[in-house]
Amino acid sequence: MPATASITTPIYYVNDRPHIGHVYTTTLCDAWARAMRLRGFDTFFLTGTDEHGVKVEKSAAANGVSPQAWADRNAAEFEAVLRLFQQTNDDFIRTTQPRHERQVQLLVERLRAAGALAKGSFEGWYDEGEETYLTETKAKECDYRSPVSGRPLVRAREENWYFRLSAFAPRLERLFADHPDFVRPAARRNEVLGRLREGLQDVPITRTNFSWGIPMPGDPGHVIYVWIDALLNYVTALGLGDGSQPERNRFWPADYHVVGKEILWFHAVIWPAMLMALELPLPKCVYAHSFWISEGQKMSKSLGNFIDLPALQGYVDRYGLDALRWFLVTRGPLDATDTDFRAAAFHDTYMAELVNTVGNCSSRVSAMIGKTFDGRMPEDPQGGGEWPARCAAAVRAWEGHIDRFELVQATGVAMGLLREVDGFINRTEPFKLAKDPARRGEVGSILAQCAETVRIAGVLLEPFLPVKTVDLAAAFGGVGGDWAQRSRWGALTPGRGLVKVALYPRVETAPAG
RNA sequence: GGCCUGGUAGCUCAGCGGAUAGAGCGUCCGACUCAUAAUCGGAGAGACCUCGGUUCGAAUCCGAGCCAGGCUACCA
Hints:
The protein is α/β, with parallel strands linked by helices.
């Protein structure tokens, strides 16, 4: 029975327009999920939409439709985006689906039964126009005025159900002490630890000022606050709330919850505490990436410089889907600092890595075999020379990087193999030797070694470049089978067809602006 | 305000106690011509933010400062 692997994106808020952030997070998860499937793991990749809350209720009203109709429309757009970018999610959960709502109520019941909930009163700064509370920090920042209308905030009080987060402080401390990799990267973990030291407050988990949400069981009039509702998606999708999908139980706990840095606290502190209360296992790692900025400027609604769907589509039209995915994964803000999305950098990366390295290397090797060996994989009496060991080491290193969610390093391993092949060709000059019929055997060895290395590098690139690596694999012998077979030296046996490929076309100039 | 990161070649970054500080890209020179005007080699290029400390030895550890960014409880 194969080992399992599971990964999640946050569920996306249907009130937002899809943009580079959503595509980035999803693409990271997709690349990892594809890598694990490639390795033969029993893999589950979950994403979805978060559809409750005041904002949805208000937007729907403003657009003259019901909240459900509004959510349906926008959720459909998020799903369309997944298909557009060829994401391979295994499920798409929506918080308005009956399967989710039913389980959230059961799980909240369980929290209450476990003594993790208490009724209390909440007092805070209330924006009457927006019908929403602002945090103390935010209120202060806005000079105690509504950031929207500018009218003064009022002190308001509400009866709510609270989650007794403070009661979990000792267990959370132990979690962070025992599992230093629970939150990554390390800089983010430090931030969480810093805040943990300041002490934990109980968190309100119900609201009474809107109705678009899941009713609190046994206390109508109270609606379960969107965050609690949303976090639970990770387990409701697997049927853990009501045992409705036993065949999916094996995918919990998740290996990675990949999230943006702004929602780390919920995932790193509130969520594990909820799971402790529910007596469910904790995810192995919450990975918080940073943000993209656009041409040196922070993306914001006021600047109108969001890298939105049309912008992304423009890159795909011009450079192809592989190019976009490659740039996002290899140049993205996977560590604790934001990174810049620049059109010029996108162009340079595409040219240097996909065209001049992946494309050209596979092209020159396949072309020489086409010419010299009639498009058949030649014999190699040298048994691969140093290459089998080098490739085996690369495969092992790649697996380690994937395990640790070091996606950039994983791509680097494959690129390193291709660069070595390019150097090897220049040193051994098979194209020169080919002119001397007496040295045909030698040429065969060289080219066979190159071809097999390129094929293996191509396999390692599949999760990141899912479109063109299909052509690469087909052109380099069409080696099938499982991971062990495909990653093994020698699978491209002599005599197999090997046709010339031209994977990534040159794109002459960087687009203006 | 509090807390957390980072400041290393023109650019993006790796190195985080030990030899002349590295990679990729860009630039310049050379080689080659199988390949997508690609590739390979070489070169140039750095007070490793500043000041002080610890040490036989500091880019690396400690302290202070400067600069940039982040987090501070409902936007990927």
